[in-house]
Amino acid sequence: MAEAAxxxxxxxxxxxxxxxxxxxxxxxxxxxxxxxxLGEERRLAAAxxxxxxxxxxxxDGYLARRLNQVSDLGKILDPTADRLLFLVAxxxxxxxxxxxxxxxxxxxxxxxxxxIAALILGALGARRIDVTWWGxxxxxxxxxAFPLFLASHTDIFxxxxxxxxxxxxxxxxxxxxxxxxxxxVPLALRALRDGTASQDVTAKE
Length: 205
Fold this sequence. Notes:
The chain is mostly helical and 205 residues long.
């Protein structure tokens, strides 16, 4: 009975955290963004919401560390929210024609390659790879570039300035995004090697 109680408490502590609540709220905002952009054609409102979702990217991680609520579920939810945001937001903006096609495709290609690689590594038994500082920084920059591109296609008085800012922030962030992706290669090889070694030890035991 005592062991069952401990297991139940551990499971709740793993799932019900403030950090996970923030990640789930960010995920819940994604369909709202699509509705605002493609359903209501309210580009400015969609741009503001997208910027808020991007700006709160650090909140869940901060809460997890600050409140000592780091969990395996949170480590999955946070990057999942980022990748879904990229995928859904970029596709919606391509449909809306509010982002340069080359910029959107380049971002999607990088995200697609990383996502497929992560799935393959997981299937091969590699241990999980933590997001690097370069990856987080480039993602943060892109999460501001896309709302700026969207805002540049509205009738606000600073639309031209928003487009300039989108390129100034977006292009370096995209280059850094690819640089971070290349940096994951040695980390992936090490994770695969460590994961395989761990499985060998378990098998021997």
